[in-house]
Amino acid sequence: MRLILLGPPGCGKGTQAKLLSQRKHLEHIGTGDILREAIRQHTAAGRRAKPYVDGGKLVPDDLVNDVIAERFNRDDRPERFVMDGYPRTLAQAAAFDQVLRQQFLDPTAVILLQVDDEEIIDRVSERWSCPKSGCKATYHTVSNPPKVSGICDYCGTKLVQRADDNPQTVRARLIVYHSNTEALVGHYRAQGLLHEVRGSGPIEEIYANIIKVLNCQAGPTC
Predict the structure, then answer these.
(1) Does residue 40 have an active-site annotation?
(2) Which of 38, 47, 54, 207 has the highest local Cβ count within 10 Å?
(3) Rounded to whole angstroms, how far apart are CA atoms 196 and 206?
(4) Cα–Cα distance for residue pair 125/158, rounded to 1 Å
(5) Is 173 considered catalytic here?
(6) Does residue 66 carry a pLDDT above 60?
(7) Is 74 an annotated catalytic residue?
(8) DSSP-derived 3-state class of residue 109
(9) Is 18 a catalytic residue?
(10) From 18, 71, 123, 127, active-site residue
């Protein structure tokens, strides 16, 4: 199984990707994690990405594409994976298509998590996350609080809130998201890969709906 998760910032992609990774034995590939891994391993693309990551700057599309390609061209490339946060643009999708074709890895499905903008703004303003690499668990103070306030359930790390998780910044990010996603959705819909799943409601319910979509794709009965 090879999946790509799309959706606005704060829609729950990371949470669902983690569940899919754990339960379906997929490698969870997040853009941030793969950039940091490339930097730790001092790869060619990692060395180029380091100044951007260290400076908190947006890494250019072509460089992100190179980091992803570098990962998939390794001998230990993932055969089963869930992509979280990549691709974000049509240019990235085209580059990723080429990488997957070269490795004979056809995507199974692209899942678009649909959440209204106002709900996203509410979610993100109450969102906390685990900063530990390899965990990255996310929480919401109302709908999905940690068992111990301020502490990650999984690894015990102190939770943090992003400095740009405020309504004004989130609205600006959503404008960029919608601008990029229209072409991206059309790209995957034309390939017959796109499936839309409502991203509101309990986490387990959303997960169950994703699995239902995947099961329907695999067989004639739904």
Answers:
(1) no
(2) 38
(3) 11
(4) 18
(5) yes
(6) yes
(7) no
(8) strand
(9) no
(10) 127
